[in-house]
Structure formats: structure tokens, C-alpha cells
Specification:
Order of helices and strands: EEEHEHEEEHEHEE
InterPro entries: PRTase-like, PRTase_dom
GO molecular function, one term: transferase activity
Strand order of the largest sheet: 5-4-8-9-10
Helix content: 10-25%
Largest sheet: 5 strands, parallel
Oligomer: single chain
Number of helices: 4
Number of strands: 10
CATH topology: Rossmann fold
Keywords: Transferase
Protein name: Phosphoribosyl transferase domain protein
Pfam family, one: Pribosyltran
Strand content: 25-35%
Radius of gyration: 16 Å
CATH architecture: 3-Layer(aba) Sandwich
């Protein structure tokens, strides 16, 4: 059990986030939207107010961005959104992939899109979406994947910008989240 917590209010929702050591140099506040319907609904509502109005489709990476993408797509009246998968499944036809490196994942991983996903986003204006942007590695991988399909990336959005990402002017976010020294 975490001994330290960071208090966060985002989109009118207050949450107590456990501060977790990633390594001997860095700790992060654990922000998890999975299963939090109130938080997903409120954050999607606020993001809908600030994302580009010409967004045609949302794209996120498995796993933590999925409930946010689903709720934002629902609120915007979009019939679907795209999820880049972290592994190939038996039902995935002709997948394409890129490598991804994230602050919360040890080592490199791959992100995959299926032929159906590619057909849905080719030539469309795509907004990349995640729960947290920190180093930007996952967003770079998503952008590369979208561009490989012929999609036009028109922006990047997240609920939180963590650490140095809070200084970036090229991303949309609702609140900032600091990084912490390990305990």
C-alpha cells in the first residue's frame, strides 16, 4: 500500500493518487481512469470543449486511454474510435506496427493496427488521445502509426500532462501532474 498520496482535482472530480516508485530516481502519481465512470464522463465532457472541432476520429493506445476514448466518442456522436493494440490477436488481419516506449512500461513495446482500423482512419483527421502525456513516447508512436495509414494527425490530447509535458504548447490537457522523488 502506498504511503504517500497526491491530491488531484480534474474536471470537478477529486481523487487521491498513490505515489509509486518507478525506480531509484523517479516516482509518479498513479492515475487510473479504468472503471471510474464519473471521472471518464467528466473528463470527456471537458475535453470535448477544447479539442479541435474538425476531429473526425479518435485514436488511443491500449489500455488506459480506452474508457476515455469510448466516452469522448460517445459524447461527440462518433460511431467508433481506434485503439492501437499492444499485441497481435488471432482476429487481426494484416496488422501494421510501430515501436513504443513509455514512462510506465519497461522496455520497448509495439503498437498494432488492423486492416479495418487502417481503412477507417486513412485520409481522416485524427485526434490522438490518452489519459496522461509524460515523455510523449506513446503519442509519438501513435502519430507514427496514424501517419503510416495516411491519416492526418490534427492534435494530441490527454487528461493530464505530467512533468515537463506540462510546458508543451502542442498538446491539449486539462490539468498538470508533477513527478516525484522516490521515497
Amino acid at each position: 500500500m502506498a504511503k504517500r498520496y497526491h491530491e488531484l482535482t480534474v474536471a470537478g472530480c477529486r481523487r487521491s493518487l498513490p505515489i509509486l516508485n518507478l525506480n531509484e530516481h523517479l516516482a509518479i502519481a498513479g492515475f487510473v481512469m479504468l472503471g471510474d465512470v464519473e471521472l471518464c464522463t467528466a473528463c470527456a465532457r471537458e475535453l470535448a470543449k477544447v479539442i479541435p472541432t474538425d476531429t473526425e476520429i479518435l485514436m488511443t493506445a491500449e489500455t488506459k486511454g480506452i474508457p476515455l476514448a469510448a466516452e469522448l466518442a460517445r459524447q461527440l456522436g462518433m460511431p467508433y474510435y481506434i485503439t492501437a493494440r499492444k499485441s497481435i490477436k488471432a482476429y487481426m488481419e494484416d496488422p501494421i506496427w510501430v515501436e513504443d516506449e513509455s514512462i510506465t512500461t519497461l522496455g520497448k513495446q509495439r503498437l498494432y493496427l488492423t486492416a479495418d482500423d487502417i481503412a477507417r482512419i486513412k485520409g481522416r483527421r485524427v485526434l490522438l488521445l490518452d489519459d496522461v502525456i509524460s515523455t510523449g513516447g506513446s503519442m509519438k508512436a501513435l502519430a507514427h502509426l496514424a501517419e503510416k495509414t495516411g491519416a492526418h494527425v490534427i492534435g494530441q490530447a490527454a487528461v493530464l500532462a505530467e512533468g515537463d509535458a506540462a510546458q508543451r504548447k502542442d498538446i491539449i490537457f486539462l490539468e498538470t501532474l508533477p513527478l516525484f522523488a522516490p521515497a
